[in-house]
Amino acid sequence: MNLKKLMLAVFFMGTFAILESHAQEVGLRFGNVNGNNVALDAVFSLGEFSRVHGDLSFGRGGVGIDLLWNPIYRPISDTEFNYYLGVGPSLFLGDPFSLGAAGEIGAEYEFPDFPLIVGLDWRPYFILVENTTFDPGGFGLNVRWRLN
User: Fold this and answer.
1) Which residues form the signal peptide (predicted)?
2) Which H or E run includes 2?
3) What total of structural domains would you count in the chain?
4) Rounded to two decimals, what is the model's pTM?
5) Structural domain of residue 119, as residue ranges?
6) Which long-range contacts (CB under 8 A, 24 or more apart) does 15-23 make?
């Protein structure tokens, strides 16, 4: 790994660590996450209807980092369901190295009397570096513990 890739990796991991320490929800994501199949999953509120959704994934010989901004995060009617849309950078530290952008669309259920959130989402990837490709991604199951 050359110096430029190492510096980029340190920047992304540092950003994720700072955000992780201020997370409102922490859990796991199962399914396709940057080509991996499991991730530490966290959500950080930016206001009533905006948030950052971060994942640190493991598998296939590397570590993936996704930091997705969900500018659209809204309730579905008067239910405990919410939907969200987002986009953000995606980094994979492994062989092959990749850097790109990911999109996200999903829905989740927030249990009213228990601090658990369960959701499903779809996350396509547009990889720009090392090889330019589109990965339609896949679906993921999120299970997170609400901290506040």
Assistant:
1) 1-23
2) none
3) 1
4) 0.78
5) 3-146
6) 15/67, 16/54, 16/56, 16/65, 16/67, 19/44, 19/52, 19/54, 19/67, 20/54, 23/54, 23/147
Domain of residue 131, CATH code: 2.40.160.20
Which single residue is written with the structure tokens 């901290």? 147
C-alpha span between 121 and 123 (Å, rounded):
7
Task: Tell which residue, 138, 134, 135, 120, has the closest CA to residue 41.
Answer: 120
Distance CA 23, CA 148 (A): 9
Rounded Cα–Cα distance for residues 92 and 127 (Å): 10
CA distance 35 to 79: 33
In angstroms, the Cα distances linking 106 to 11, 25, 97, 126 are 27, 16, 27, 18
